Amino acid sequence: MSADTRIAAITARIVERSKPTRERYLDRVRSAISKGPHRTVLSCGNLAHGFAVCSPSEKSALAGDTVPNLGIITSYNDMLSAHQPFETYPALIREAAREAGGIAQVAGGVPAMCDGVTQGQPGMEMSLFSRDLIAMAAAVGLSHNMFDAAVFLGVCDKIVPGLTIAALTFGHLPAVFIPAGPMTTGLPNDEKSRIRQLYAEGKVGRAELLEAESKSYHGPGTCTFYGTANSNQMLMEIMGFHMPGASFINPGTPLRDALTREATKRALAITAMGNEFTPAGEMIDERSIVNGVVGLHATGGSTNHTLHLVAMARAAGIELTWQDVSDLSDVVPLLARVYPNGLADVNHFHAAGGMGFLIKQLLKKGLLHDDVRTVFGQGLGAYTIEPRLGENGAVVREEAADESADPKVLTTVDKPFQSNGGLKMLTGNVGKAVIKVSAVKPERHVIEAPAIVFHDQHELQAAFKEGKLDRDFVAVVRFQGPRANGMPELHRLTPALGVLQDRGHMVALLTDGRMSGASGKVPAAIHVTPEAIDGGPIARIRDGDLIRLDAIAGTIEVLADAEEFAEREPVDVDLSANEFGLGRELFAPFRRVAGPADQGASVLF
Q1: Which residues does UniProt assign to the signal peptide (predicted)?
Q2: Does 54 appear as a known binding residue?
Q3: Could you give the CA distance from residue 498 to residue 277 in angstroms, rounded to a whole number?
């Protein structure tokens, strides 16, 4: 089916806007492709270093460019639950590569930090920048020019976007992403949230809180709520970087291993040495990016991707804007209810039909581009499946069902949970911001209340504990942008604001920082740009200013005299405390050159 006319029109304007940068990008990719297998340019000394630890047969094969060599970029570490399963992947990939007549080498490792560990801590101020650092680290690994294709092992928040930027920077190489899957279901997410709020109110202690958190995050795999990590996996599948059905299979299962073996063999099959050459830079185009945004809206995905998708697209010479994202949200219905946009977790989502059912439903109404290239070698229609383990241990695929196994979790396109994706751009005299309202009750989509200004999330938490916030207000938390302090998530504000909202107060958040991939029930205008450190209007807001946040009209306004507001001097704040400790001093160059949020908050583009 051809794309819905509204989807097609938005895609067409992205294509038109991107022509100059996309053409330059493709020229670079095709120039690199034209040089053929790259090991031929290496001197004997270069090559000897590159295969020094290989077996004699592998050395012979690599010396003659007779077999494809697969580069593995891994984000393994054994502190992060989502990445711990990758410890065994290189051996599995090397074995599968040998079976397919190829060779695989670990090209390099990339850092992988966890927002869950650093939430509310100084380390969170390096989190967003780690995305671009990951892209750079992957580039170092692939710069040895030894490889005919690459597989990328990554799952969580900044890791997959960083790896995607690297894959597209090396767009002359085929790239396959191999996930590890979600952990099994633990303590229900709504119960975890309830305990957090009780702790914020002082009604339970640290021991009870830690017990609840430990039951929630209890084993290998991604966290089971639908935050950035699981949004990443959805994106890689709907954009064609995964094998069909790969996203949400639990770690340590036979099917998970079978999918990893299959992905390895497929990566070797799509190199320039074969007949199905699929370079990542040509595979991913404007239609692929639009499909990613559509998937984000249809599942109520992470607000962090209003940053990441913009940066990922730019790596391929594609100019995606917040307006595009917002306009697509108006077209795409919400088909999934996964926490915090519901009670279910991603395991329930997968059991209800998962990605295969979702893609099938979206294609049914022309809300996705089917005529895209994927690593599987077919259009997106090939992803409307459910994966199974065959009798011989290989992956088999069955057509996805027409009806959801749990309509409360995953619904049809004809009976959506809501008519739009709930992610909008806000504009007004504060600048630009984004808001996700898919989990916000309709009566809170418009908030008008006086501002209370904070320059640190801990100030707000302290004011809450002192009982100073029992009223209607908009919390303005500023100097949290990429150039100020790396744009940390402010997710630790959620319990306090949630308590106040539950007490009947009209509350909202306005910030130039990030909220969370799990932005929830409190209306939050986030990623405000221009940010406060650049003298943006948010730096001119004063305590008591009446602020109107209207997620229906798409506006964010300070209701003050326009001339008086414009003439105010922006507040200047001492940010020296953000510059040192836990490695933050090393990221000073990143803070100096970081771009604005609506351009991806990147140091690369």
Answers
A1: none
A2: no
A3: 51
Count of residues making up the chain: 605
Residue 245: CA count within 13 A, CB half-sphere: 22
Whether 368 and 499 map to the same domain: the answer is no
Phi, psi of 234 (to 5 degrees): -55, -45
Phi then psi for 526, rounded to 5 degrees? Answer: -120, 170
Number of helical (H) and strand (E) elements in the chain, helices listed first: 22, 14
How confident is the model over 295-320, as pLDDT tens digits?
999 999 999 999 999 999 999 999 99
**How far is residue 73's CA from residue 92's CA, in Å, rounded to a whole number?**
14
Element (H, E) at 529: strand 524-529
**Reduced to 3 states, what is the DSSP secondary structure of residue 361?**
helix
Lowest average pLDDT, out of 179-183, 340-344, 406-410, goes to 340-344
Residue with tokens 């509310």: 120
* Same domain flag for 385 and 471: no
To the nearest whole number, what is the mean pLDDT of the chain?
A: 94
Query: Using CA atoms, how far apart are residues 73 and 71, in angstroms rounded to an integer?
Result: 7
Beta-ladder partners of 388: 396
* Total domain count, the chain: 2
Report the C-alpha gap between 103 and 333 in whole angstroms.
44
Same domain, 347 and 430: no
Percentage of residues of the chain with pLDDT beyond 90: 83
Judge whether 114 is annotated as a binding position.
no
Does residue 206 have a pLDDT over 70?
Answer: yes
Q: Is 572 helix (H, G, I), strand (E, B) or coil?
A: coil
What domain range includes position 504? 423-599
Q: Give me the pLDDT at residue 38, please.
A: 67
Q: Clarify whether residues 367 and 493 are in a common domain.
A: no
Q: For residue 125, is it within any domain?
A: yes
